[in-house]
Amino acid sequence: MVNTSSPTFSIRVADECFEDYILNSEFTFTVTGYARVQIGEPVAHWPVDAVEPYLKNYGIDSEEFCDYRDAADSTVLVAWLDEQPVGHVVVSQHWNGFAHIDELAVDTGARRNGVARKLLDVAQFWSRKRGLPGITLETQNNNLEACRLYERYGFVVGGVDHLRYRAIDPATQETAIFWYLLFDAPGIDHCGKPF
After folding, report:
1. Which of 38, 97, 121, 157 is the most exposed place for a label (fewest CB within 10 A)?
2. DSSP letter at 144?
């Protein structure tokens, strides 16, 4: 369990212990419904089709991200509270010129401590340092806590893909949501609309 009274926080580049951290962490979240994304509307206004709550786990594969650690156009960063790894972000330069967050995950025992926000801060620093115009990432319409986090951070929905997961499960209600954080983009409101 994490010392939440006054933990010492740090972010470090992933090392050879990354696989152990992944194997010993819990990244599940509870699905309570599927949002019907309304581009240009705040997440709080999205209609949600409720479902019987269940735990979702995407099954993070540490080997998948090994090459990101050593590449010039990507990195894997791990958040630590005291001496315990509690979250990570995998960020790379995407083909479209944006930074892309390939993965952002926080251990269930460390949530609600600002870990995800701090990992987003570091991903933003990494992206700005490279002169990239912003960050993109994808989440799903059943991960409403993540959607709220990205919206609060300043991301806007740039697109929705209702078919992305149909090959995995033809009957799925899961929808991909593509979020963008545009740097120095005057005239864009919190919903991604120009003003």
Report:
1. 97
2. H
Residue 132 CB neighbours (<10 A): 19
Tokens read off for 164: 């992305």
Q: Which pLDDT band holds residue 88 (cuts at 50, 70, 90)?
A: very high
Secondary structure, 3-state, 8-28 = CEEEEECCCCHHHHHHCCCCC
Mean pLDDT highest for which of 4-13, 24-33, 155-164? Answer: 155-164
Closest CA to 105 of 151, 160, 143: 143
Q: Would you say residue 161 lies in a domain?
A: yes
> Does 109 reside within a domain?
yes
Cα 1 from Cα 9, distance rounded (Å) = 15
Domain of residue 135: give its range. 9-182
What's the whole-model pTM score?
Answer: 0.88
Q: Does residue 168 lie in a domain region?
A: yes
Here the CATH number for the domain that contains residue 177 is: 3.40.630.30
Can you tell me whether residue 84 is helix, strand or coil? strand
Q: How many CA atoms lie within 13 A of 72 on its CB side?
A: 0
Quote helix, strand, coil % in the chain, to nearest 5.
25, 35, 40
Q: Is 53 part of a structural domain of the chain?
A: yes
How long a stretch of residues is the chain?
A: 195
- Tokens 């819990």 belong to which residue? 26
**Residue type for position 163:** L
Structure token digits, residue 119: 């990992």
Domain count along the chain: 1
